[in-house]
Amino acid sequence: MTEIRPARADDLATVAAIYNVEVEGGVGTFDTEPKGPEHFAHRLVPSDPGDVFLVADDAGTVVGFAYSGPFRPRPAYAATRETSIYLAAAARGRGVGRTLYAALLDRLDEAGVHTTMAVIALPNDASEALHRSLGFERVGVLREVGRKLGRWVDTAWWQRLC
Description:
By secondary structure, the protein is α+β, with helices and mostly antiparallel strands. The protein has 4 helices and 7 strands. It has one domain: Aminopeptidase (3-Layer(aba) Sandwich). The mean pLDDT is 97.
């Protein structure tokens, strides 16, 4: 049984390892240099109730993480958050992502977040299906905004109103 819980400092090395799979071989992030645990440390001390950092813990092993943060730095965006989710390969297709992301969205709803935004590099049918199943709708595509792994990558913006 996978437990969804707040991230802790001792999770950060595994979080970085999961993230770096996408840094080095995927387009789930547009980062191009691997990140160490310290890259995620600031998320452990939220500056706002809408800043949430959760992990999926499978019998003591972190197999995924999801977080939210500010959408934009201007005050009028205070009730809008941008979210991200990453899963280890072994956790995909088992419902872990849906459980983890639903828990994140529940926390955001409790914090009074009005709008949740997500960016998905295309193509990514699984991520688009996950977001759709959790009440997001696709609101736009930005064409060829990133270049990674020798190709131009489109991104889709997804939005969920609470």
